[in-house]
Specification:
Radius of gyration: 30 Å
CATH topology of the largest domain: Alpha-Beta Plaits
Number of strands: 9
CATH class of the largest domain: Alpha Beta
Helix content: 25-40%
Number of helices: 6
Shape: elongated
CATH architecture of the largest domain: 2-Layer Sandwich
Strand content: 15-25%
Length: 234
């Protein structure tokens, strides 16, 4: 039975339920009671507040929002789906998504002004690079400066530098989680001022090791082609 003088049927999120005070309940009229303010401005006791909110969903069931998420993924799940089953299905969906997910992001190349250990000059090496070129990444676990250091190489083995400290830490962490990375030059940075260093703009392509290799390769190839064409148009 609805509580007299109080609008019922409100959703839980529509009830303020934060401010509290002692006094006479605006619903049942009992006093003294610990009261909670609702959206209408009335102050009601715990008993009336429970009636306004209606029956609560059992904690062992997935929430309506979680049910909707699974249905949007194409799964036919019941309204009373247990939360444990929801978590299992989420893990299954994540594994499926990882097998097809490939993406890329921008990254910074550091150390371009230094020479390599074999004496080769990185600036001269970068001058021979071009947009769209695919670069390999290698973790230098014995690097004395940064244990997460990720060295960046051309396909012929020439080193052009390192990923920035922040990018190296991110890539190294993801390696441990089963993700693979490769770099593509998106632009050779040159302000045209004599004596200034050449730089390299990178795009890091990343995918989980379970991804179909053809999907990964196609993404890299399409990105490389895009950067080569953009360079010709400049």
């Amino acid at each position: 039975m609805p509580v007299s003088g109080i609008e019922t049927g409100k959703k839980k999120g529509e009830i303020m339920g934060k401010k509290k005070r002692k006094g006479t309940c605006g619903g049942c009229g009992n006093s003294p009671r610990v009261l909670t303010e609702i959206d209408s401005g009335q102050w009601v006791c715990v008993t009336c507040l429970r009636e306004i909110r209606g029956p609560q969903r059992p904690k062992h069931l997935a929430t309506p929002k979680q049910i909707t998420r699974l249905r949007n993924e194409g799964l036919n799940v019941p309204d009373d789906l247990p939360k444990t089953e929801y978590l299992r299905l989420c893990e299954k969906l994540e594994a499926i998504h990882r097998k097809t997910y490939v993406n890329h992001r921008s990254a910074n190349l550091a150390g371009v002004s230094h020479n390599n250990r074999d004496g080769t000059n990185r600036q001269k090496i970068i001058a021979r690079c071009s947009s769209g070129e695919i670069l390999a990444l290698k973790h230098e676990e014995n690097n004395p400066v940064d244990p997460n250091a990720i060295a960046v190489f051309r396909q012929n083995g020439e080193q052009v530098g390192y990923l920035s400290r922040e990018d190296s830490a991110d890539v190294h962490k993801n390696y441990k989680l089963g993700w693979q990375h490769i770099a593509v030059i998106n632009k050779i940075l040159d302000d045209g001022v004599r004596g200034h260093w050449l730089g390299v703009g990178l795009s890091l392509v990343y995918a989980h090791q379970t991804v179909d290799v053809t999907i990964f390769q196609k993404h890299v190839a399409d990105l490389s082609k895009k950067f080569r064409e953009a360079d010709r148009e400049r």
